[in-house]
Amino acid sequence: MVWADGGYPGRLIGWANQVVALQIQIVKRIPGSTGFHVRPRVWVVERTFAWINKHRRCVRDYETRPDHHEAMVHIAMICLMTRRLARIS
After folding, report:
1. How many CA atoms lie within 13 A of 46 on its CB side?
2. Cβ–Cβ contacts within 10 Å for residue 49, how many?
3. Are 42 and 26 in contact (CB under 8 A)?
């Protein structure tokens, strides 16, 4: 199950189901709401992006190749998880 913002409806849902075998659930805004409201499962993605952006090389688009940027995201998450595991031990 993949949760997506309201900006992703349309062909993405069918494509993800057929090609990648993923179900996508669109998390929409609460009708009639104004300002900021916590929506279910959206905070998980926003929090993860914030953790990745704490890593210096992921803040800006320094990498010119997508595979290099992907590697930097992996390194950022590895650093985060090893720090957390070191605190537990």
Report:
1. 7
2. 10
3. no
Which helix (H) or strand (E) segment is 73 a member of?
helix 66-88
Distance from chain centroid for Cα 89: 28
Chain segment 4-59, per-residue pLDDT in tens: 777 777 788 888 889 988 888 887 777 887 877 777 777 777 788 888 888 887 88
Asked if 50 contacts 13 with a C-beta cutoff of 8 angstroms, the reply is no
In this prediction the pTM is 0.56
Degrees, nearest 5: CA angle 46-31-35: 55
Q: How far apart are CA 7 and CA 27, in angstroms?
A: 9
Q: Could you tell me which residues come within 8 angstroms of residue 1 by beta carbon, excluding any fewer than 6 positions away?
A: 22, 23, 24, 25
Is residue 39 within 8 A of residue 27, CB to CB? The reply is: yes
